[in-house]
Amino acid sequence: LNNDQPPSLTNLPIIDQFKVVAIYESGMAEYDDIHAYINFNTAANFFELDDEVSGYNINLYDISKIDSIKTELSKMLSYPFYVRSYRDINKHIFTWLELQQKPIPIVLGLIIIVAVFNIVGAVLMLIIQKTDAIGVLRSMGANGKQIIQIFMFQGVTLALTGILLGNALALLLSWLQNEFKIITLPEQIYYLSSVPIAIKAEIYLLVSVLGFLLAVITSFLPSYIASRIQPITAIKFN
């Protein structure tokens, strides 16, 4: 159609035939349903643009500079030219993503609480089972610091095992999802055909370090309780 005039009897559609050589899927329904890619010269002839272009796409190496570059280009260009970033074009998608991210701190907080109780519970159960051994160690001259070190070691070992297994499982599941699209989504609702997962080493490292520190802190309380057990108390307990 003539870009400057609405469809009418004098502005009939331009019809041509094209051969489909491949199908490209971005995973976003609003693009896949309406976009087709053809040779630049063919497109220019089809829309009767001669040597003109209807727009430019600019790719940045540093995405953090997108707002500043957009501002600079907007100052340089005036009507009928305008500058839009990928966030402007897909504003509804980013709004939806921001909405989906709001419950994440709550979910992570609940997971952390469960993890804390699991570590504390595991160490306390170990202390109960080993109360007689604690009494023997105390009667043989072991001090409170040594008892703390023993059970802290148990708690940290448990945490490190969980961190290593958790990272390995998370990495495997993430790879499987990215390769085989196991978890699918309705494109009309979520704008994506599957759940994308970004595998970043710094995220794994951050979670591992925080998990380890949390394990050390939560292991200290039951370890301290164990260090306060007196030999006579351990004997009476049994």
Measured between the Cα atoms of the first and last residue, the distance is 91 Å
How many strand elements? Answer: 0
List low-confidence stretches: none
Helix and strand composition category: mainly alpha
- Report the major sheet: none
Computed over alpha carbons, the radius of gyration is 31 Å
The percent of residues in helical segments reads 55-70%
- Number of spatially distinct domains: 3
Order of helices and strands: HHHHHHHHHHH
Specify the number of helices: 11
What would the principal axes of the Cα set say about the shape?
A: elongated
Tell me the fraction of residues in β-strands, as a range: under 5%
Structural features, described:
This protein is mostly helical and 238 residues long. It folds into 3 domains: 1-54, no CATH class; 59-89, no CATH class; 96-237, no CATH class. The protein has 11 helices and no strands. α6 (104-129) crosses α8.
